[in-house]
Amino acid sequence: xxxxxxxxxxxxxxxxxxxxxxxxxxxxxxxxxxxxxxxxxxxxxxxxxxxxxxxxxxxxxxxxxxxxxxxxxxxxxxxxxxxxxxxxxxxxxxxxxxxxxxxxxxxxxxxxxxxxxxxxxxxxxxxxxxxxxxxxxxxxxxxxxxxxxxxxxxxxxxxxxxxxxxxxxxxxxxxxxxxxxxxxxxxxxxxxxxxxxxxxxxx
Length: 203
Description:
Largest sheet: 7 strands, antiparallel
């Protein structure tokens, strides 16, 4: 599920059905240490040009959380990866939802009422400044702090800037131009991916 950004037009996701009434997170109670093998693989675009996002596992540790995540630029254009030199562009982390129902994600995305991002603090290995054509990154993202037991976790990847590079802390256009399969998926200026899959934290 793409998060709506200034230059991004959102299209409805195909997964999930039904409607979701207003719900809130379970009463605050820190989740205990736990590990889940997830093996999520999601993508946007088409068979000839797409971005692929993966989450191999998620873990609640004694002092925080961590996720084994990956992303692959399976296109012929570079994607600049948000970093500290671009203010507000580093948005990798997680969001906690009240349910695992996909329509909750769709509804909150459309109404711009998504949960607050819980940003990752460390990346091992470090994120690349740019995800070059057909380049992949895989590693662990993590942060300190408790997460609420009973809540549903979705991993957030972003911000990615298609067809652009970072030079001297500024975004500059790159060539070749964006593939048609990504244009038809309404990917234009910025992309932040929230996983369609969700994992419920055990109590």
